[in-house]
Structures are given as C-alpha cells and as structure tokens.
Amino acid sequence: MKVGILGGGQLGRMLLQSALNYPVETFVMENDPNCPSAHLCHHFVTGNIQDFDAVYNFGKTLDAITIEIEAVNVGALEKLESEGVAVFPNSSAIKTIKNKILQKQFYKASQIPSPEFLVTNSLSELRVQTSFLPAVHKIAEGGYDGRGVQILRTAADFEKGFDAPSVLEKMVTIKKEIALMVAMNAKGETAIYPPAEMFFDPVLNLLDFQVSPAQIPPNALWKAEAVALRVVKELKSPGIFAVEMFIDKNDEVWVNETAPRVHNSGHHTIEANYSSQFDMLWRVILNYPLGNTDPILPAAIVNVLGKENFSGKAIYKGLQDVLKLDNVFVHLYGKRETKPGRKMGHVTILSNERQELIHTALKIKKMLAVESEVDNL
C-alpha cells in the first residue's frame, strides 16, 4: 500500500518509525528537504502542503494520505477523495477542525460541552466585547503550539487580540487540563487511551510535561471518555484524534480543542502503552484490527525545547546525564537548528509511582538544555 504523509516534522518522523513494522511504501511531502522525516521515508517530495496542485499531484498515485499538521490544502484532499484516494482523517473532518470558528460551531451543533464563545472578524469588533471578559482570543487559522492565542482579562488587553477572523472564548476556571487520544476505523469501531494530564509552560504556552494516566475522579473520567468518543463519532471520520479538555472546579468537562492527527499528548504511548498512537494510526490506515490501548506502566513526558536566547546549530547539554537515568527514553527529532521554544525532542519516563514521575520530569527539565554553538540572539 502506498501511503503519503503531508508534513515532514517530528510527528511524521515517529509515524515513519512505526511504519517499519508494516507492509507499506511511504511518501512524504514538505518544503524542507532536511526536515526530520526526509531520510526515513521511501520517497520524499519537496513541496508546499498548502498548495492545491502540489498536494493533488503528490496524492493522485497513492492509495491513502494522512497529515501531521492541519494546515494543508483541503480542496486538493477533497478532489483526491473523489478520485478514490483514502484520506485519514477525511477532508470534512480536517476542514472543520483546522478553522477554530468552524470547530467551535461544530461543538455547539453536536451538543458537545465547550466554553461559550463568539466570533470576531476584526479588532474593532473585539473592542466592544468588554462584558465577555475574561476570555481567550484564538485566531481562526494559522495558530500552532501556543501561537495565535491571547488571554484577554481587561479591555486594556484588546490590543493583543487579532485583527482577523477569530474566536473569543469565555475563560473557564480550570482545575486540570487533560487530553484523550481516540482512534476510529472505517467500521466505526473505536479505541480510547487513558487520559494524560498536561502541565503548561506559562510563558511559552507550550506543553511543559505531562503524566498519564491522569489523576482525576471516576465521574470526571467517565464524562471525559464519553465526550471524547462523541467528538470523534460526530466527526464521522476514521483516523486518530487528540481531544484536549478542561476539568473545572466542579469536575465538569469542557472540550478545548481537537487535533485530527497524532499529537504531543500521546507521545508517551510509544513506550508506555501496548499499541502506540503511531502504531494505531497505521492499523486504521491499513485496515488492520485496532490496537490495545492499555498502559504497560504509568508515564510522564518532558518536552525538550530550545533554550531562551539561543538560536543556531543545536547542542544538547546534559544529554549524557539524562541517558544514565533508569526507565527514561530520549527522543530527539533530528532538527539541526534550534531557536527559543522550538520543540527539539521529548523524554519519556516510566514508573509505577506518580511522585517519582513528576520528580524525574522536573529533574530532567533542569538537566537537559538545547543551546547553540553561538548565542546570536
């Protein structure tokens, strides 16, 4: 089976690593021929994943296509689907999720609990919404890894907002943030992973570290699983999805966002679960039985981010020390250049003891730093 991946970053890289276990011929398209996925696929094509002709020409001889980022040309995927190419997830699901306005409207229409929102198309429309504060302003398209999101607490913050179509979302009092990975095959059968509890860097607004399974009350777990399954079933598409949620002070569950692909919050599944999120997606694409989502051991992951004030050829300080630790697994993404906040890798930790997971995660954050040959910022 010939399968293409649109995007050549770390998600594509880990998907390709998992593909080695299956009879599949892999194709990747990305602008950068030195991207993390380029040397791991059977065929690499340099091209713009947002360009109609590039995506169509890339996919027209393939059996199936999947994505590692939502910013792809949906029109080309629609045409490919009409010509018999399978797309995971389908173009309709990608179209709904890649635009945050459409995504929020989908939650509302499907009666999925999500924070109250309104749509703004310009800064002038935003400035009259004082009564809606405090709120979070999210640009409709183009936001990624914390970019395209602004917290607005008072009218003075309006100038930080976006002068473009956006969602203004009522702020929820959050007790915990969790994410659940859900897979669905072409028959509508589903598999759900235990939730991961996420801890964010307050400055970069990026995932700092996470622990799985999340420590949440049984009633909140039941609600979270039911809501995550509803999101995926309402999208009516085979694939794998990350459903990110808030749990409030009353243990009510609110969907924050959904990603229609493998996701940072599922990276621990490579070592910690019987079937990883990457293995699971290949099972869906190749029409194999869904994998076992049970955990082997509880896990934590730490994101390895480019250190502030360093930009240039990456140097990993403290890597030798981290590799000496027991039950610790280092994944570097093969990115040659570092810059502040850039995702350069992740580290997975396994332990039966939650406190040990958190302690080791915090220790690794201090031990491992991504610097550059020259501090040129």
UniProtKB/TrEMBL annotation:
Enzyme class: ligase
Catalytic activity: 5-amino-1-(5-phospho-beta-D-ribosyl)imidazole + hydrogencarbonate + ATP = 5-carboxyamino-1-(5-phospho-D-ribosyl)imidazole + ADP + phosphate + 2 H(+)
Function: Catalyzes the ATP-dependent conversion of 5-aminoimidazole ribonucleotide (AIR) and HCO(3)(-) to N5-carboxyaminoimidazole ribonucleotide (N5-CAIR).
Stretches assigned to the ATP-grasp domain: 104-286
Residues annotated as binding ATP: K100, K138, E169, K170, M171, V172, E177, N256, E257
PROSITE patterns from the UniProt entry: ATP_GRASP (PS50975)
Assembly mode: Homodimer.
InterPro entries the UniProt entry points to: ATP-grasp, ATP-grasp_carboxylate-amine, ATP_grasp_subdomain_1, PreATP-grasp_dom_sf, PurK, PurK_C, PurT/PurK_preATP-grasp, Rudment_hybrid_motif
Family in the record: Belongs to the PurK/PurT family.
Recorded metabolic or biological pathway in which this protein acts: Purine metabolism; IMP biosynthesis via de novo pathway; 5-amino-1-(5-phospho-D-ribosyl)imidazole-4-carboxylate from 5-amino-1-(5-phospho-D-ribosyl)imidazole (N5-CAIR route): step 1/2
Gene3D superfamilies: 3.40.50.20, ATP-grasp fold, A domain, ATP-grasp fold, B domain
This protein's UniProt keywords: ATP-binding, Ligase, Nucleotide-binding, Purine biosynthesis
Alphabetical list of Pfam families matching this protein: ATP-grasp, PurK_C, RS_preATP-grasp-like
The name this protein goes by in its record: N5-carboxyaminoimidazole ribonucleotide synthase
GO process terms (BP): 'de novo' IMP biosynthetic process
EC number, UniProt record: 6.3.4.18
GO cellular component, one term: cytosol
GO MF assignments: 5-(carboxyamino)imidazole ribonucleotide synthase activity; ATP binding; metal ion binding; phosphoribosylaminoimidazole carboxylase activity
Superkingdom of this protein's organism: Bacteria
